[in-house]
Here is the input.
Amino acid sequence: MISRIRGKIREKHAMHLLLDVGDITYEILMPPAVIAAIETEQVELVTYHYHKVDQNKSVPILIGFINEVEKEFFEHFITVSGIGPKAACKALSKPFSIIAGWIAKGDFKMIKTLPGIGETKAKEIVAKLQDKIGKFGLIQDQDIETQAMVEENIIEESLAVLLQLQYKKTEAMDMLNKAIERNPDIKNSEQLLNEVYKQRQF
Here is the structure.
């Protein structure tokens, strides 16, 4: 069981890193909010190590976090029925303190904005975790929170445009989330809508 890993970042993507450890390069799956907080080339990550079993194959997967508190929040999140490790990584696209605050307040509207989380799943998350995640709202991630607020405004502006263009809200949010996954460096609504347009050409 791999519990920690230290190395140099070879490549950084929206939901995973390639990490050089000696002569070996590991692929580390990570929530977007965690990757956004990493600014150095050399990192030491706390890892969640599991095996995905598929058609008689067992594939080892490492999920990385900056500290044990983030890992603990993730482990709480995957106790919700129907949310596996990969789905949790995708959903945890905002700073953990913000998500914890939404859960604590029972803010279904905001929880539903997380990738892959619909209304039913949002209610299950609140029912399962509302009284268990208070300390995670204390995580010091103010800089990431500011970035998340900016991103939230960009999404709202872009969503308003797509609704004017007669797209359904669920379809529009799906397109916006996928565009951000493809290009996490988007700075404004114009760039986001351009990325949506690009992805619809393929």
Summary: The first strand starts at residue 4 and ends at 12. The domain at 4-65 is CATH 2.40.50.140 (OB fold (Dihydrolipoamide Acetyltransferase, E2P)). The mean pLDDT is 87.
